[in-house]
Amino acid sequence: MSALRGTVWFVGAGPGDPDLITVKGRRLLEQAGAILFAGSLVDQAATQHAPQGCEIRDSRDMTLEEMNAWLAEACARHETVVRLQTGDPGLYGALVELTRPLDAAGIPWRVVPGVSSAMAAAAAAGETLTLPEVTQTVILTRVAGRTPMPAGEELEALAAHRSTLCIFLSITLLHEVQRALRAAGWPEDAPIVVVHKASWPGAEKVVRGTLADIKRRCQDEKIASQAMILASPALGARLWPDIARSKLYDPGFGHRFRKASMPAGIATGESA
Ligand code: SAH
């Protein structure tokens, strides 16, 4: 084998819409000698931007060992090798399993972040994941499938915080999501939004429901894959009669870019 010279770039392709890859990610695809992409979700981006003669391979039918060998061999032939993954590579993307063998082989690698489906789902639904005085915390999680949850990370325990939950990889386990939220005391009318194929042109579906009926609504829409479950006390806030204002835009709240024009609290009617 010739001397190693390439770098492996783990590039977040974004949630599906080919326009939602970062400029940096697209530039890397345009100069890639080889691209290993993760399944159907990102094939369009790979084929759209790759230069002529680029080696393009779908990793869907490969084992981890085969992927590692493919990436290492590609680095012996090309300066830029891209591993293209859905959303952001740091979320449920087997990043460590793929980078450890590269480290062991002395092959340099870098990560280019991507728009996660959690963000794309919120955007599709026109929802905010944080809202002043309602929730200021977002938990990205899943329920246990074949991958068990570490102790203390059971959905029931996380849901006890009553903050926003973005639940990945769990659409076929909606009954388990319902059970956990109920056990944590969420009411039956708690709003839940499921977004299928967020950002996919022509394919995106937003299903709005409650803890009580979200499973039936998803069944009615035949949603059984590629879906983000959003559970949050902030869902639907745009329809509420009254919300606490964000301090950032409160005239009484000065910050680096603006001086306060009135004492804090007056604009929102709260005591300082
Ligand atoms: N790294 C990815 C997540 C990969 S795990 C990210 O940051 O988004 C795969 C899970 O992500 C799916 O089971 C689903 O829950 C979610 N997902 C990925 N793309 C999606 C999309 N376009 N719409 C809704 N959910 C999506």
From TrEMBL:
Domain Tetrapyrrole methylase span(s) in chain numbering: 7-214
Swiss-Prot/TrEMBL keywords: Cobalamin biosynthesis, Methyltransferase, S-adenosyl-L-methionine, Transferase
Gene Ontology MF terms: precorrin-4 C11-methyltransferase activity
Pathway the protein acts in: Cofactor biosynthesis; adenosylcobalamin biosynthesis
Pfam families to which the protein is assigned, alphabetical: TP_methylase
UniProt xrefs under NCBIfam families: cobM_cbiF
Record-given protein name: Precorrin-4 C(11)-methyltransferase
